[in-house]
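Q: Predict the bound structure with guanosine-5'-triphosphate.
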Amino acid sequence: MVLAELGQRISRALGSLNSVTVVDEAVLDACLKEIATALLQADVNVRLVANLRNNVKKRVNMEQLASGLNKQKVIEKAVFDELCAMLDGGDPKKTELRKGKTNVVMFVGLQGAGKTTTCTKYAYLWKKKGFKPAMVCADTFRAGAFDQLKQNATKAQIPFYGSYTETDPAIIAQQGVERFKKEGRDLIIVDTSGRHKQEEALFEEMRQVASAVNPGHVIFVMDGSIGQAAFDQAKAFHESVDVGQVIITKLDGHAKGGGALSAVAATKSPITFIGTGEHMHEFEPFETQKFVGRLLGKGDWGGFIDKVKDVIPEEEQQQELIDKISKGEFTLRIMYEQFANIMKMGPMGQVMSMIPGFSNAIMQPGSEKESQAKIKRYMTIMDSMTDKELDSSSTKMLGEHSRILRWARGSGSSVQDVVLLLEEYKRLAKVFSTAMKGMKLPKNLKGDINPRNMQQNIAQMSRMLPPHMLKMMGGPAAIQSLLKQMEGKF
Ligand SMILES: Nc1nc2c(ncn2[C@@H]2O[C@H](COP(=O)(O)OP(=O)(O)OP(=O)(O)O)[C@@H](O)[C@H]2O)c(=O)[nH]1
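A: Predicted complex:
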């Protein structure tokens, strides 16, 4: 079962508490049974699931709950906290790097977990933060491993060390670390071969590499879709080389979330980063509460804002956009630019799941592809428009039949698609002009954004939302929680 499904099933189980008039022991048991089944099917270790079930039951004492209390909320909170506790890997300080000092970091894991890719992502991330990383290839097992590391390191402009002739990985690792220490590199990353706990000789080799370089940090890289084997494998690595943190890769695809939860428990180490794609920038710091929140479809407003900021970097451009929209000028060009931003934000499901209330259920993987294809189609049509047309907000001009035919021909689209685009434009223009009425926009983006204004704006938007949309977002309660989350952000 993939992560999104796991989240949906847990949310559904919790949601079922709403449909009963009295939440009693039997209802709680049924809900926990459903959650436990979902976790087990997502490959979370049996013992962890049993612990979660017992702990929630201990925390939720039905008799003690005053009748006025919202039992569903209490249970939901207990499940949320227990899932977070499951992912709590102890003191995060232990994973910190010391700038300017030598930090030797060794990567270990099963074959194909994504170690080499992750070493580069990790090096690149710290390079951006001002560290001077270097990479050492101590993988003599897989033919082509050194070439892969070389290629990745070159792309990220990070110095590397390896050998085509030396067969002892401990010797290569030691030579590489010595070389980079002398060169004053403060982050030396040692990539090792993939190995399996049954391969005792390879485990011994890994211990030798570790004692040759004496790493300050050992990172266990784990494929997010590994399944039930995660617990035992992670434990075996932890017992051999003192794993202090875990990085979960491939969380972009069909990864089961359960392995992640199990690996943390087995290594008693925190997850520090997650890999969300094959590319260098597809790498994110891991934050437990955000992860569990997203899993349960609670959204991550902070993450969403960060993504939005990433794609709209220019302050002047934002101000210009706000000025234009507040004058009621919602043109096709503005719509085009917004579409381009949406496309830049990456997979829409990922972005949508960050917005509180927009659980994964709304953006099914199928519809996500469809939506992206539709946006691309619309952008192609707009590419065949003239500047005057793009900058006009006159729907009269846009409704001319001859122009519609011209855009369809120019973009190789059907007339129907062009008409759909124009309808979408009119709909959005209306939404924007209504939204702008009475909105208290900050005069200048450089100035402080007043949280009260922001709250009023959002409250106004929630009143404006069509009922089905409000329902989709989780109802007024979800808007309320969105407001609360925003309070802390502005
Ligand atoms: N989709 C996706 N693919 C990833 C991610 N991380 C790594 N990969 C892919 O996983 C495959 C294996 O990655 P490697 O970095 O070669 O794995 P490795 O652990 O170094 O492999 P061995 O040295 O053979 O143990 C490659 O095709 C990577 O592109 C990720 O976060 N998402």
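A: The beta strands are 103-109, 133-138, 160-161, 187-192, 217-223, 245-249, 271-275, 283-285.
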